[in-house]
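The passage that follows is intended for readers who have already worked through the single-chain material. We present the inputs for a multi-component assembly, then the predicted structure in tokenized form, and finally a short commentary. You are encouraged to pause after the input and sketch how you expect the pieces to fit together before reading on.
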Amino acid sequence: MAVRTVIKIGNPLLVEKSALVESIDHNLRQELIADMLDTMVAEDGAGIAAPQIGESLRVVIFGIEKNPRYPDVEPVPTTVLINPVIEVLSTEIESAWEGCLSVPGFRGLVPRYKNIRYHGLDENGHIIDRVVSDFHARVVQHEVDHLDGILYPQRIKDLKDFGLISELQAAGTIPKIEE
Ligand code: NI
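Having made your guess, compare it with the prediction:
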């Protein structure tokens, strides 16, 4: 287990489509998944996708506990999701500010589907199948986008809604967060 370097926007690996995982074995669990989890915790992220540590495989991890830094966000159980598939359940779209460990220091206003169903396999090969909405739906859409080589700035409708965290906070556009 190890904290790995998170690759950043501009690295061509982040715009590649990742490959399906063909077998969920000891190596996948002990190397890739363990390293992703360690890295997500060390970087204090709400999610991470395998390509962000340079592995072009369809694996994402996400989760957020009740956190005073995100008072308006409902908790999401820490979930390892392999070969995820998203089904959109309604055309309803919501916009909210997102960040990404691969785009450090920035936030952007991103429209996402409000209600989705997602399914895939966990680290033991068991099926995960959930109907979710709001922040939970957003984080899954963000992470699965990574597997298709899409970073959130590509989803921003108007690039005026993209900027440095420090400037957006100074302007009152996004709340200040206690570090
Ligand atoms: Ni991201």
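Commentary: Residues 100-102, 142, 146 surround nickel (II) ion (CB under 6 Å). The beta strands are 47-49, 59-64, 76-88, 93-98, 106-113, 115-121, 127-133, 162-164. How closely did your sketch match?
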